[in-house]
Amino acid sequence: MLKGNILTTDGWIHGSVHVENGRVTALEGHIADPSTNDAPFILPGFIDLHVHGGGGRDIMEGGDAADTVAREHAKHGTTSLLATTMTAPRDELMDVVAGLGETAKRRAANGARVLGVHLEGPYINPGKLGAQPDAAAVAVRDEVLKFLALAPIRVVTIAPEISGHLEVIAEMAARGVRVQLGHSLGTYDDAVNALKHGARGFTHLFNAMSPLHHRDPGMVGAALAHAEYAELIPDLLHVHPGAIRAAMRAIPRLYVVTDSTSAAGMPDGEYRLGSQHVTKCMGGVRLADGTLAGSTLTMDQALRNLVSLGIPLADVSNRLSRYPADYLGLEDRGRIARGAWADLVVLDRDFALTATYVEGESLVEYAQ
């Protein structure tokens, strides 16, 4: 049983949440504004749908790297995540995805639940790689189906302007994959057509896509005009606070991702991002030419960043938990409700994380 200010699906209550066999069994308490007391905040555990690494390990290493990544992010309140790949040669990528299929069948000790895979590339525009290696490929139906057979591919990032990609988008969408548009030089019309073919979101909105101009709205303009969902990196390096606010007003279920690299949770220095070497310094991660290359962001810091912009805690929580769960169609995660998995985080009044629970198991407790 945990006591405090609990953010339920119906709003805040002051009371207790009861857990049994990994699930929430009861909620007790009364409606209360958290500002009227000094009790801790109890929120749904964070769900990060774009994670490349953490704790010095990179998803593309294969082996037990994903377990280390899941443990590192659990220290920061992430209770479930998508292991996110980098663009790589076909055989290498197949091997990594096959390994992640095995990882998704279990949960690492003291780690977040790996819900599946976000395939970020190789089906991107070679003219908009960002920090992706130069190994972009054109999506072919048979190859895509092989990936889907190897692991639970929950999300795929794709550039819609590439010939043949609209048909692949429709195929993946019909199979329940969430197709996101990103690493793209596509036009506004390209994006709108992709949404009509079943695409659902946009990868790290504003970054590695054609920008908004009032006479040429680009991918960003299509997202702001039409998207219900999009992911965004609120490390305050990738996106200006003003652009964050604009996106939040335009996109109803804009949700938070970290796009974190192996440098997350580590000191400044040299790290790996897929086949490339990156440098962590001054709070960011960059390639040798200065290009932003993922982030060092963690979800608890993302929460504090957004709260510092004046965004209400309940709204921020939805963008870290409920909306990503809804995006994947998960009705028993991302919310505190009877019958849902007991994925919970506890924050003190300064929004510092004091405990993380994954499926009812206490993973991390911090000294007050």
TrEMBL record:
It comes from the Bacteria. Substrate binds at residues 131, 207-208, 215, 238, 292-294. One of its GO terms (biological process) is N-acetylglucosamine catabolic process. Gene3D superfamilies: Metal-dependent hydrolases, Urease, subunit C, domain 1. Residues 41-361 form the Amidohydrolase-related domain. Transmembrane segments: none annotated. Zn(2+) binds at residues 120, 183, 204. The active site is at residue 259. Its cofactor is a divalent metal cation. Binds 1 divalent metal cation per subunit. Keywords: Carbohydrate metabolism, Hydrolase, Metal-binding. One of its GO terms (molecular function) is N-acetylglucosamine-6-phosphate deacetylase activity. PANTHER family: N-ACETYLGLUCOSAMINE-6-PHOSPHATE DEACETYLASE. Belongs to the metallo-dependent hydrolases superfamily. NagA family. This is N-acetylglucosamine 6-phosphate deacetylase. It comes from Caballeronia concitans.
